[in-house]
Hints:
The chain has helices spanning 24-100, 107-110, 136-171, 304-312; strands spanning 4-9, 18-23, 184-187, 190-193, 200-203, 206-209, 215-217, 222-229, 235-240, 245-255, 262-263, 268-272, 282-289, 292-294. It is of the alpha+beta class and 313 residues long. Strand 4 and strand 5 (200-203) form a beta hairpin. The mean pLDDT is 80.
Amino acid sequence: MKDESRLIFVPRNNSEVKEFKISRLKLFTFSFIILISFTLLAKISLDLLVDFSYDSKIKTLERTNAVLEDRLMQAKTKIDSINFKINLIAQRDDELRKVLGLNELSTDVREVGIGGSEFNYNFEDEVLGFEDNIGLGEQLNNLSKLEREVKLELDSYTELMSTFQKKQDSLKYLPSLKPVLEGYISSSFGLRMHPIHRVKKHHEGLDFSAARGTPVYASADGIVNFSGNAGGYGKMVRIDHQYGYETHYGHLNKFVVRKGQKVTRGQKIGEVGSSGLSTAPHLHYEVHYKGKPVNPNSYYFDDKILNTMVIQK
């Protein structure tokens, strides 16, 4: 028997049956060629599909990168704008510090440096061949610096507000009101001839000549730490105003406050008199700062309208 195979085709219409003879070697060779062709076609189709998918992803990534690069450029512009505004805030901070009597922050402090060696972002460690065309590392460093600068300004603002509130509070205790609305200065602060002892002696306050019974007002908020007879000063009231200030009101005809009582600026505390060593009705008024007498003229406003408005308030 020959080493061959037969292919028989039987038509449905019962026409002539066709028979083909082919050797097994040829049949195997033909089948192998068909299989190889199909495999190559499948490989080419798969490669084309993969290339298309890869190209699609590359194009998507390129579009994404373009958008991200544009957004990062916008972010860089905003960082520069924020940095400019931070510098303006720093200037205002220095101006407020001058007004409030605080020391300016030095340039070294405003650099807000950090310890250790200088840190630089190196994206080569994460992406091989990374090209930092838009200065991403520099932007991240600037953001880190801005974060520290904002914290510095917040701390400075807290200090400024605390100082401002203290100063605002201290104004209530500054003896800025003239203690009598009527009357004139009959004896100034400093060396003078004592009107009774007839010797030169330092006068530690001002004497306001006024009619007996003229109201005497507290020159600032405070707490009465003495009300009573004080020897040569006669009937006297002393008020502690905090922040180192204390005022004395002597030779009163009477006082209307008691020790430990809180008083406010413009509140009546007594009346002009001539008690103690006195030649005529007047108010002896002293201002002490940190235990030492100072010239009262340096503190009160000699404006009757303004003083009247404070008292009526």
